Fold:
Amino acid sequence: MTLGLNVRAAQIADCMETNATALRVRVTRLKGGVRFIDCGIEAQGGLEAGRLLAEACMGGAGHVAFSGFDCDGLSLPGVTVHTDHPALACLASQYAGWAIKPEGYFAMGSGPLRAVARVEEALFERLGYAEPADGPGVLVLETRQVPGPEALSWIQARSGVAAERLTILAAPTATPAAGVQISARVVETALHKLHELAFDVTQVLTAFGTAPIAHTSKNDLRAIGRTNDCVLYGGFVHLTVAGDDAQLEELVPRVPSSASRDYGTPFYDVFKRYDGDFYKVDPMLFSPARVAITNTRSGRTFEAGQLNAAVLKQSLQA
Structure:
C-alpha cells in the first residue's frame, strides 16, 4: 500500500483550479492535456497560492499554516509546517531532487511525481517507497519558463504518467507563492540533512517546523539568497524519533546549519563566492538554524543551533 501522495496532491490542484480567480493563479492545458498551474510566472499568485503549492509539494501529507516570526526585533510573516509522515512527505515528495533537464530546459523538480519516476533510485530504495504510473502525477517546478513539448515528453517518458493525468505547478523564486513554499521546506531540510548523515529517516515519527517568509526580491538570484537564509538562519524544527540516546546525542549537533563551514554569511554572498555553483557550497549548510529531537523511547530531548537574526537582517536588507 502507498500513502497516495499523488492522489492527495492532485486533489489540492483540483481545489486550486476551482478557485483559480481567488488564488490569482492561471490554469492552462499544455501538450496532450497536461494541466499547468502558474502560481507566479504570468499569474500574480499570492500567499494562499503558495500555501497550497507547498502542501501539494508535500503530497498532501503535510500541513502548512501562516504564523508570525519575531526574533531580536526582527518581525516577519512566517509559516508552520507539520506532518505525521515525515520521510514520505519530505523526502519522497517535497525534496527537489529530480533535475528536469531535456535539451534547452532546466528546472529542479519536486512533488510526488518523483515517487513514480524514482529517478533518485538510491533514495527511494532507502525509503522503501514507490507509487504507480497509472494514476495522477503531480510535479512542482521553481522556474520562470513554462515547459515546452520536448520537456513534457521528457517528463512523461521518465514517469510513465499519461499527459491528461499529469499536473505541473510552477512559481519563480522571486514571487510571494515561491517564498511561502520555500520556507515551508524547513522540515524537509532537516530530514535531508539526517539522511545525508546516514540516519535512518524512517525512524522519524512526527515533524514540526517554523520559518520566516522572505521579503519578495527584485530578481530570482536575490530571492535564492533570501529564501535560503530564512531557513538557514530563521528555521526551527522539532522531530520525534524512535531511536538511541547515544546516537542522537552525537548526531544532533551536526544537524543545524551552524555545523557547516559556510555558515555565518548571507547565502547570496556564499553563492557569489562559489561563482553561482550550488555544488561548491558545503552541502551541510542546507538545514534549519535550530533543531530539537525527542527520543520517544527515553523521553529525552536533544537540541542544537540557534536562530541568527543578525545574518537574516543583513540578507533581507541587501
Remarks:
- The chain has a mean pLDDT of 97.
- The CA atoms of residues 155 and 211 lie 32 Å apart.
- The radius of gyration is 18 Å.
- DSSP finds 13 helices and twelve strands in the chain.
